């Protein structure tokens, strides 16, 4: 069986709308190519189709660092945004309602926001496994900095635990169309954590659950490019693909 191919792109610092538009342009390319392969493979043999698709399809792993923005998932509550429109404008923070799962989160400087645009028919058609695999990538990445990431039942993302206290270091929210993924993860590296005071992060009001970053845990800023390279490595390791 062929290994899936993934194109890596670092979009740099970008406003949310521009990244949103680019995701949709890229997803359209992936879905259009899948349609072409399907039309060229009329056989009912799904193994033949998936093998040809895997050989042909180009998946994408997009990294960026957003200008300050709050995004609210389709199942989230606007009550979890604690600023009004005037306050958002005064602080230079954008706000978007979007189609991913989950509630409200923050994207901004010092954070690696990742958008895997993967045709899961080249990998595995299991949404639960996909989300757990994203978590595994982040758990392996932060382990290289001496941090033990964990999962908490009913709370998607990657957490650190200290007794009863739990701190989220990576938020995850996804959306799929025809088994093609969009949105993804937000890993707090050198993220200024005070921005999370303006929201109820992920809609979680539990006093024992807060937000953290690599820098906060290590007591120093971390090289962003180094973290990106480690995230990329663990993506290819966990998902079993080759960069092209």
Q: What is the structure about, briefly put?
A:
The chain is an alpha/beta fold and 244 residues long. Helix content is 33%, strand content 31%.
Describe this structure in words.
The longest helix is centred in the N-terminal third of the chain and has 25 residues, at 16-40. This protein has helices spanning 16-40, 46-56, 85-91, 127-143, 214-218, 224-239, and strands at residues 5-14, 58-66, 69-72, 94-97, 104-107, 111-117, 150-152, 155-162, 165-177, 180-188, 209-211, 242-243. It contains 6 helices and 12 strands. Helix 1 crosses helix 2 and helix 4 (127-143) packs across helix 6 (224-239). The strands form 2 sheets. Strands 1, 2, 6, 7, 8, 9, 10, 11 and 12 form a 9-stranded mixed β-sheet that branches. A 3-stranded mixed β-sheet has the order 4-3-5, with no helix packed on it. The protein has 244 residues and is of the alpha/beta class. The mean pLDDT is 94.
């Amino acid at each position: 069986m062929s290994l899936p191919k993934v194109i890596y792109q670092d979009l740099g610092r970008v406003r949310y709308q521009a990244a949103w538009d680019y995701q949709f342009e890229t997803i359209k390319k992936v879905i259009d190519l899948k349609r072409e392969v399907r039309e060229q493979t009329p056989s009912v043999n799904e193994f033949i189709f998936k093998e040809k698709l895997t050989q042909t399809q180009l998946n994408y792993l997009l990294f960026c660092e957003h200008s300050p923005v709050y995004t609210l998932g389709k199942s989230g509550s606007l009550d979890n945004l604690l600023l009004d429109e005037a306050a958002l404008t005064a602080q230079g923070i954008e706000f978007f309602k979007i189609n991913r799962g989950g509630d409200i989160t923050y994207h901004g400087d010092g954070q690696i926001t990742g958008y895997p645009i993967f045709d899961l028919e080249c990998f595995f058609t299991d949404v639960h496994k996909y989300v757990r695999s994203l978590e595994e990538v982040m758990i392996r990445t932060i382990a290289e900095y001496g941090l033990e990431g964990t999962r908490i039942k009913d709370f998607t993302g990657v957490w650190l635990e200290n007794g009863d206290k739990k701190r989220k270091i990576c938020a995850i929210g996804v959306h799929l169309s025809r088994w093609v993924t969009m949105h993804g993860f937000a890993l707090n590296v050198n993220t200024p954590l005070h921005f999370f005071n303006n929201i109820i992060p992920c809609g979680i009001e539990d006093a024992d659950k807060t937000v953290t970053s690599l820098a906060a845990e290590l007591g120093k800023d971390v090289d962003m490019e180094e973290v990106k390279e480690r995230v990329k490595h663990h993506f290819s390791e966990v998902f079993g693909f080759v960069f092209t």
